[in-house]
Design brief:
Chain lengths: 84, 158
């Protein structure tokens, strides 16, 4: 399985905090997973997840660009952080 | 020098800055300097009045990302102890939201580490603020000045 989490404005806009989907060769990379989510959920998801400042993390570490995903990985999409 | 003690707490409850500061001391009077920073919820932001603020975070990643920042501070400065407490949930103007403490033998390391930790926390730890005011709710936008402050620390100790 892949666990996918959404936070803050992204979670609200997509009306989704978390989903799980089976790992497969079709979602074995981060860009492929994002494409798959957008294809499944529609234009609104594509618009949000493809925003320039979208941050993507795999297993709770921010990643730049594409990367491989393994069964059991946790992926997160979130906007720029505003803590402190 | 032994390994510096570090601690990270993410909590809804208010914190006691006096107790936190005492907690940085190890009891053998090795610390000549403790620098601390407390951040509060302001009553206004970007010309908007703020009646309350909700802080969301990414449990797990929040703690690990702050621990990495503290580890980096310990590599850069000769710290004896350093600690971060960050609140989440619903907060009101005037509420303390974040506390950073750094203890060292001398003040330069304590001051600089405290500022470094705060600058990195602002730009790397997965927290998000949503403000409520007369005009309704909105997510706080990141500030480019925060990015600029964090970038100052690239390339080692200033």
């Amino acid at each position: 399985m892949l666990k996918v989490l959404f936070f803050a404005r992204v979670r609200e806009t997509l009306d989704c905090a978390q989903l799980e989907l089976p790992w497969s060769e079709q979602v074995a990379r981060l860009d492929a997973l994002q494409d798959s989510l957008c294809a499944q959920h529609g234009a609104r998801w594509r618009e949000v997840l493809e925003e320039d400042n979208m941050i993507r993390a795999v297993n709770q570490v921010v990643v730049q660009g594409d990367c491989a995903l393994a069964d059991g990985d946790e992926v997160a999409f979130f906007p720029p952080v505003t803590g402190g | 020098m032994g390994a510096a003690r570090t601690s990270v707490l993410v909590q809804e409850a208010e914190f006691d800055v006096a107790a936190l500061q005492r907690g940085l001391l190890r009891g053998d009077a090795a610390e000549g300097a403790v620098a601390t920073f407390t951040g509060y919820v302001r009553c206004d932001n970007e010309q908007r009045s703020v009646s309350s603020m909700r802080l969301e975070h990414y449990p797990g990643m929040t703690e690990s990302s702050i621990e990495q920042i503290l580890d980096e501070a310990c590599r850069r400065w000769p710290l004896l102890a350093t600690s971060v407490v960050h609140r989440v949930g619903l907060l009101q103007p005037g509420d303390p939201v974040v506390w950073v403490g750094a203890a060292s033998a001398h003040r330069e390391a304590a001051f600089e580490a405290c500022e470094f930790i705060m600058d990195y926390l602002k730009t790397r730890a997965p927290f998000w603020k949503k403000e409520t005011g007369p005009a309704g709710e909105h997510w706080v936008a990141p500030r480019s000045s925060d990015d600029a402050r964090a970038r100052r620390w690239r390339g080692g100790v200033a």
